[in-house]
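4-deoxy-L-threo-5-hexosulose-uronate ketol-isomerase
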Amino acid sequence: MTNFEFRYASNPKDAAKYNTEELREQFLIDKLFVENQIQLTYSMYDRYIVGGAMPVGKSLPLETIPYLKSENFLDRRELGVINVGGKGTVSVDGEVYVLDKKEALYVGKGAKEVLFSSTDAANPALFYINSAPAHKHFPNKRVTKENAEIVHLGEEKFANKRIINKLIVNSVVETCQLQMGLTELLEGNIWNTMPSHTHNRRMEAYFYFDLEAPQTICHFMGEPQNTRHIFMQNNQAVLSPEWSIHSGAGTANYSFIWGMAGENLDYGDMDIVAPNELK
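Predicted structure tokens:
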């Protein structure tokens, strides 16, 4: 079963006037994993799709949705999958890829059948999904931490010491525009993407996970001189427009997945905002 919803893009002047409920309604994706369902959110930010699949005891097919107006989901799109649960498999046109927790799979444009399965129904896989339009086929590729590009950033004195695992990025996998990676905050560190930044040539989505209950994460967004915040729970995602900062702080350490799409594949193309310049 596939459930889906649609989100329009928001003008920054309008978003600055949103109250808490409106802000969450426009940007927060609060339910990604439902047993034996695929949850999808189609966003008008670069026509990006954010979703989750939780197969328990049966395989879940990635079905097309009306917004795509295509016979198959990937007729004109590419797909990134990162498993954040128990071991599982993704079958792409009959070829099976095994994904442990925090391993990724890139699926190129044109694949007809994609099936998500869990190895153990008692410990199901949780497949986090990002998809963007594509105009060329690139080969499917499984990416583990062994062949990811890994960067250590931050300092304990600033509570932002973290490990960035670049999984589906142009230095590791050929893609049209989709870029994805996984950042792990070390114990005692809570700040991600600080100093903050914007990048006008691509949007982004953040997915927060491995947050100990009942802790919370405060996701900061908005224009650098006119910021807003959204409190989030474990296994929730948030859309980040190209005009918005995207930073966060938790009441405990956590991991998060960043996914991007737009006209630029350069990870380092960003406009940094110093912490003391934020308002």
